[in-house]
Design brief:
Layout: H1 2-9, E1 19-25, H2 28-37, E2 43-47, E3 51-57, E4 59-63, H3 64-71, H4 78-84, E5 85-89, E6 91-94, E7 98-102, H5 109-112
Antiparallel strand pairs: 1-3, 1-5, 2-3, 4-7, 6-7
Helix pairs in contact: 2-3
Length: 120
């Protein structure tokens, strides 16, 4: 019986989690980005000693103008975001004014040229 419990405890679940997220540096900029994301629908923010996790259901939208305003700067962009981000999961789509993270590639199809048509 113990063998069955151990095997099931470590079994894989191949279904989609429908989640995407990023790990941010726990510095002044990362902290403010996390505060901007706090309270958005479907988004959870977890402050840890050396990093901040921002996770979401379905899709997460990091709006550069909104982040720049919170930081009190004129401009915030992809380079600034990548400087504070250490890792991400989900399909990342980088646009001029925002970064979108999608839990499922199919949801990002219009941005990445992913063909959803069935080929027979």
């Amino acid at each position: 019986m113990a063998t069955t419990e151990t095997a099931s405890r470590f079994s894989a679940d191949p279904t989609s989690s429908n989640r995407a997220g990023v790990t941010l540096m726990n510095n002044q900029v990362g902290y403010m980005v996390a505060r901007v994301m706090t309270g958005k629908p479907g988004v959870t923010v977890m402050d840890l000693p050396s990093m901040i996790r921002v996770d979401g259901v379905g899709k997460i939208d990091f709006d550069f103008a909104e982040i720049a305003e919170a930081l009190g700067v004129d401009d915030f962009g992809q380079d600034d975001f990548e400087e504070i981000m250490s890792t991400h999961y989900g399909r990342m789509v980088v646009l001029d004014d925002r970064i979108l993270l999608f839990a499922n590639p199919e949801d990002a199809a219009q941005y990445i040229g992913f063909d959803l048509d069935v080929v027979s």
